[in-house]
Every structure is written in C-alpha cells, then in structure tokens.
C-alpha cells in the first residue's frame, strides 16, 4: 500500500470515529466568536483547509496560531463552512455525543410538561440544543425531522436510530425546506423515512383543542408549534370581540379566540385552499360554530374589507416569512408596514392588533419602528401591551442569537 493510500485510509477512519482528519484554519483576528462558542464558521472567516475534508467530515477549527478551538462538521457547498459541536479536544463527534444531546433536549421538553401522548412539541431545536442542522418535532406518536445542515443529513440513519430508542415513535417523516436544502447541498426526498405512516392526518391536542396535522405536506413540519403560548395568551384579549384572523393556516389562532377568548365571531382567511379545508375540519372537530374560514390573499382581503366598511374588534396577522435573506429586509419591512396599515384600517378604536413576524433578519427594533410608521401614517396611537416570542420548546442559545426569529406583538390601536 502506498503512503498516500495509507494516509487517505487513516483520515477516513479518524473521521468515522468522530475525530478530525483535517483542520480549518481561521484568518487572523477571526477567532473571537468561536471562543465564545458561536456554532457557525462562515467561509469568509477561514484562511485554508489543512488535510483532506469531504463534505460532512469532522474537522478541527484552529486559530491562525494553530491553537485548537472547536470541532465541527465541514461543508464546502455552504456559506456556513463548518458547524461546531464541541469545544473539548478530547470529545468525538460520534453516536455517544448525539445521543447525549438528544436525551438532554428531550429532558427539557419533559420538564415543560410537553410529553403528553397526544400532544405536540419541538423536541430538538438545532443550535439551541447543541445540534446545529437538526430539528425534530413530535406530533402524537409520529416525528417530523427537518435537516438544515449537510453534516446532520449525512448522519440521518444514526440519528433516526437514536430517536427510535429515545422516543419510540410509530413513524418518522423527513421534511426539508427547499431553499435551505439547495444552500446546503442536501438531497433528501420528503416523506415517510421509517416506520408506518398515519391513515390521513395525525390528531394532536394543544391548549385543550384538537387539530388534524398533515405531516407529509403541511406547512413547516405540519403545524406552527412556536405560536402555542401566543395563541392562548392573545385569546385573553378577544372577549366579546369580532376577530379577523389573517394567514390563518389550520385555524389555531381562530379556534383559541372562539373557545378560550370568548370571541363573538371569528373570520379566518388563508391563500391556501388546502389550509382553509383543514381549518374548517378543525372547527368541526372541536364543535365550534362561530368561526368561518375562506380562501383569499391577505393584502387583497384587507383592502376589500376596509373598502366595504367592515370593522373588527381584533385582527391577527401571522404572515409567512417576508425576509429570507438580509438583503431583503427593507422590502420585508415595507410589506409589514402595508399589511399592518391595512389592518389598522379595519380595526375599531381600542381594537386589539396581534401582529407577528417569523423573519429572523427582521429585528424587534425593526418591527417596532415599522409600527411607529403605521401610527404616524394612520394618525392612531399604537400601544404595545406584550412583546412575545416562540414557545419554550424553541429555546434561544445566547451563543447563537440568530436563533431568535419569531416576534409576536399584542397591541391596542386607539
């Protein structure tokens, strides 16, 4: 065997064992964030790769002085060139580490009382649980796995085996976001990956209400788990009010408004006819008769309602992500401004506005200044009653503040 072949075999064995066969060396003055345990090493921070590293391989991150900083997974196709998982030079990126991280994540959700058999929760939230690139949601007896990092995708069988042992689901689905998959070079087909699938929708319980969830084709991984607490809290402001729920998806804000909030009437709109059908089915499932769902574009519906003189005591705005990259923040803020301005036009004096953004690149300060612009343009005072974020099963790691994305402002419009 040649020296070159021996070296390649040795590198492959080291990577398979969870230790690095190659090193990513940082440019001068680029190490500070990673000593602070930020898990993303961008391509612009790396001076060179020493040794042979295939996509998905384990690599060590070194300062320009050669000092070890951390260990992660390499991806030449991604702007996030290395995702970091340990700062302990003696710790391998292997089955033991993944298993321990998943068990720790599950223990948090159990402590939050989110382990009821018919409930739903985010079990693993990527960087917040030390598992950058991996998201796992539980819907009753099924799991939905979303992969946002190539290194995790290359270890899918290993991760599925751990999840099977730890959770004992009936089946595991794979869900990918097309834009993220392209950026990472992930080639996976959505659908049932292991076990058996449900016959039709999976039924879950949340806040005392039941919902049907489409695990194969529903938005996100099937349901907006991050809004769980916001739906319940917002409902407390809706008593005896007529409520308009825009971008209602499967009707969760609407049903909470009617059942827990005592709303007089709720109208829900979504652009997707499939979502509207699911929302109607959920209303019937819960025996709610004062909630009505229709298909329609959010902007167009609001314009039409305002033009016809319709008025509401509360409006919920939970639109899709408007800013998928930092360069589109200005366009996103213009869209949020227009949407909230239209909502103000149909709100009664003293009405409640629940306005949300799931665009991570749009900060809370950005959103507040957008609301200031709406107040100035409409001549109406906007009082922020509560500023909320994602539910506790979507924790935020202070070492990766980019994980904060959901903003939910409960306001009074005078």
Strand content: 25-35%
- What's the assembly state of these chains? single chain
Number of strands: 20
Radius of gyration: 23 Å
Write out the CATH superfamily name of the largest domain. Vaccinia Virus protein VP39
Class of secondary structure makeup: alpha/beta
Average pLDDT value? Answer: 94
* Biggest β-sheet description: 7 strands, mixed
Distance between the termini: 81 Å
Overall 3D form = globular
- Which range best describes the helical content: under 10%, 10-25%, 25-40%, 40-55%, 55-70% or over 70%? 25-40%
Short description:
The chain has 414 residues and is an alpha/beta fold. It contains 12 helices and 20 strands.
Would you write up a description of this structure?
The chain is built from twelve helices and 20 strands. The protein is an alpha/beta fold. It folds into three domains: 84 residues, PUA domain (Archaeosine Trna-guanine Transglycosylase, Chain: A, domain 4, Roll), CATH 2.30.130; 101 residues, Transcription Regulator spoIIAA, CATH 3.30.750; 190 residues, Vaccinia Virus protein VP39 (Rossmann fold, 3-Layer(aba) Sandwich). Strand 15, helix 9 and strand 16 form a beta-alpha-beta unit. The chain starts with a helix and ends with a strand. 43% of the residues are buried.
